[in-house]
Design brief:
The chain has 158 residues and is α+β, with helices and mostly antiparallel strands. It has a single domain, classed as Alpha-Beta Plaits (2-Layer Sandwich), CATH 3.30.70. Helices cover 32% and strands 30% of the residues. It has 3 helices and 4 strands; from the N terminus they run βααββαβ. The chain has a 4-stranded antiparallel β-sheet, covered by helices on one side.
Length: 158
């Protein structure tokens, strides 16, 4: 009998745990009027940056339930930063973990969910007269940095 394996999770059991840091970034293009509402804290659904930060942090911790081939990680730290750049809002998410496998997917997922949440919170201001979003775009989603930091062995004190 021939065994056929169509999918599999990568086995990382032979890898050592190391400090892993990943930082991702993405942006959402919005109408100037919408950006003004965000800056003034006048978005009906609430503080866009606070809510989207919490959404990103929660997403980072829950990624394996959405992408089943991503290993569950013990997340040590998540940093979420927003920037307004003329006609768009950008977010960077940094994830830190001491694990056998990387944190870049978690950082990307944090970015994407934060941006989707921004869209959800401001969609009433972005719609045109037909109910479409001709100006709204999620763009430039990238991993900015991924590093592994090997722990130094303890100093010889003899």
């Amino acid at each position: 009998m021939e065994r056929i394996k169509s999918v599999r999770m990568v086995d990382v059991s032979s890898k050592s745990e190391v400090l892993r840091i990943a930082r991702a970034r993405g942006c959402i293009e919005l109408r100037k009027e919408t950006i003004d509402l965000i800056k003034q804290g006048r978005v009906e659904k609430g503080d866009v940056f606070t809510v989207s930060s919490v959404v990103a942090m929660n997403a980072v911790k829950s990624l394996p339930s959405i992408l089943p081939f991503c290993h569950p990680l013990r997340i040590d730290h998540v940093d979420v930063e927003f920037y307004i750049e003329s006609s768009r809002v950008c977010v960077e998410v940094e994830v830190r973990t001491r694990e056998r496998t990387g944190a870049e997917m978690e950082a990307l997922y944090g970015v994407m969910t934060a941006l989707l949440n921004v869209w959800d919170m401001v969609k009433k201001y972005e719609k045109d007269e037909t109910g479409n979003y001709p100006y709204t775009r999620i763009t430039d989603v990238v991993v900015l940095r991924k590093v592994k930091i090997l722990e130094k062995p303890p100093a010889d004190t003899s």
